[in-house]
Specification:
Blueprint lengths: L3 E6 L3 H18 L2 E2 L8 E6 L4 H20 L4 E6 H6 L2 H5 L5 E3 L7 H11 L3 E3 L6 H5 L9 E5 L1 E2 L10 H5 L3 E2 L2 H13 L4 E5 L8 E2 L5 E2 L1 H9 L6 E5 L8 H9 L6 E3 L7 H6 L6 H14 L4 E8 L6 H14 L4 E5 L17 H26 L3 E9 L6 E4 L5 E5 L7 E9 L4 E5 L2
Parallel strand pairs: 1-2, 1-3, 3-4, 4-5, 5-6, 7-10, 10-13, 14-15, 15-16, 19-21
Antiparallel strand pairs: 8-9, 11-12, 17-18, 17-20, 18-19, 20-21
Helix pairs in contact: 9-10, 10-12, 13-14
Bound molecules: S-adenosylmethionine and FE3-S4 cluster (F3S).
Length: about 450
């Protein structure tokens, strides 16, 4: 009988992308098929995230649940991939001895080899190397699921923000060659993909080798992707303020396929906190980028990431973050309570704010972000927006898709998946828009 795999993904979009590529490797390289649930699988992989402490705890909760399954069917293999695997390594097997495979984000293309070795030797397999580009060279061609797809342009991070584990778990920044990214995009376009999101921890630090020599930046990459037959929309995430060049800003004015939406993590609106986070910019510098972007592409939607309760954050410093959110007019965003990560410089700083106070700040900030997002939704009522059709909405017999600025639009009318339709926006919800196709 054909062996089956089940992958559960935690964390960021890069992890979602990695899981899809791991699934490609298991299907094409090992002849396996996807299982609908972990209980039906012969190989179960948890693709983990270690950005915040809770994420690691979630892994061990999940492993606890899988333990019984493994006792009942000892031939089932359990794997831990991703950033917790990178960070904890063999300690995972120390704490959960029934785990068979531990491998980091840069070793996922070796999943088939690890499975075979585990079966042949009976010994758990651990692979935490960073072989850089080998990962992409060894993976089979990406498979599309619907009209939108992620494509990794670069990997890793060399910024070393004082609070963050990513540079340690995913290794230093490196970019895929331009031609490799374009080949993947073209392959996806042939399978019906119309919108591509270029991925990287700091995707605007992209510096990929060009076929004729020279280095392509993200503006150049976006220009080349725009010329791929079938691709109508381009997004990219996550970008870093320090790498936000004028060339990229100009690309927003010149490249009509570059969607009017940027996720640009600011983390805090207070300069002293930003310095202690080692972010490399001030609030004024951040606002200057926003101003130039708005000039280049009026109506561009900006979202961001925020950390509240960074060690020593005072009430006034937190108020500076709230003020920045209002000044920039963010269209929503993600906020997180600071979580001390072992091995990062910030973990050594005194953290004396109470949990109650941190939760209160998180609530206040998230409310503000959500209310600004909802206000943006209300402003769209009465507009006609081009929507890329993705499929059926969860309820109401409607179709669903996304507007240029990435808002979800649920709508009535006839349309095919992958088609671009014009939708008249009739109502705004807290998290989505509603409308009908116009002829
Ligand atoms: N590369 C991106 C950037 O430029 O910031 C972000 C990568 S990180 C995986 C995603 C988000 O997680 C960050 O923007 C930050 O807000 C949050 N984050 C990272 N480390 C954190 C920590 N120790 N505690 C709380 N939130 C954290
Ligand atoms: Fe983390 Fe800062 Fe890099 S948040 S992923 S170290 S840019």
């Amino acid at each position: 009988m054909q062996q089956r795999y089940f992958i559960r993904t935690f964390g960021c979009q890069m992890n979602e992308y990695d899981s899809q590529r791991m699934a490609d490797a298991l299907r094409v390289g090992c002849g396996m098929e996807a299982a609908g649930a972990p209980e039906e699988a012969d190989v179960i992989v948890l693709n983990t995230c270690s950005v915040r402490a809770k994420a690691a705890e979630k892994l061990f909760d999940e492993l606890g649940r899988l333990r019984k399954h493994k006792q009942a069917r000892p031939e089932v293999l359990i794997g831990v991939a991703g950033c917790v695997a990178s960070q904890e390594g063999a300690a995972i097997i120390g704490r959960a001895p029934y785990v068979d495979l531990v491998f980091g984000p840069q070793a996922l293309h070796r999943v088939g080899t690890l499975i075979r070795r585990r079966r042949q030797t009976g010994v758990p397999q651990i692979d935490l190397q960073f072989p850089e580009i080998e990962k992409f060279d060894s993976l089979p061609a990406a498979t599309a699921e619907g009209p939108r797809a992620f494509v990794a342009a670069m990997e890793g991070c060399s910024k070393y923000c004082s609070f963050c584990v990513v540079p340690y778990t995913r290794g230093p920044e490196f970019s895929r060659p331009l031609a490799d990214v374009l080949e993947e995009v073209a392959g996806l376009a042939l399978q019906g993909v119309r919108e591509v999101t270029l991925l990287g921890q700091n995707v605007n630090a992209y510096a990929g080798a060009e076929p004729g020599g020279g280095i392509a930046d993200l503006a150049r990459l976006a220009e080349c992707v725009a010329n791929v037959e079938g691709i109508e929309r381009i997004r990219y995430t996550t970008s870093h303020p320090v790498n936000f060049t004028q060339r990229l800003i100009d690309a927003h004015a010149a490249n009509p396929r570059l969607m009017p939406q940027v996720h640009l993590p600011v983390q805090s609106g207070d300069d002293r906190i930003l310095a202690r986070m080692k972010r490399g910019y001030t609030a004024v510098e951040y606002k200057a980028i926003v101003r130039r972007l708005r000039r280049a592409q009026p109506g561009i939607s900006l979202t961001s990431d925020f950390i509240v309760g960074f060690p020593g954050e005072s009430e006034r410093q937190f108020a500076n973050t709230l003020r920045l959110v209002e000044e920039v007019g963010f269209d929503g965003g993600f906020s997180f309570i600071y979580s001390a990560r072992p091995g990062t410089p910030a973990a050594a700083l005194a953290d004396d704010l109470s949990t109650g106070e941190k939760k209160q700040r998180l609530h206040q900030l998230q409310e503000l972000l959500d209310s600004q997002f909802a206000a943006g939704n209300r402003r769209r009522v009465g507009e006609n927006l081009p929507v890329l059709v993705e499929g059926s909405a969860k309820s109401g017999g409607l179709l669903t898709g996304r507007a240029p600025d990435n808002r979800v639009v649920n709508f009535s009318g006839a349309a095919r998946i992958g088609e671009m339709v014009q939708v008249a926006i009739e109502a705004a919800g807290r998290f989505s828009l509603r409308g009908g196709v116009v002829a």
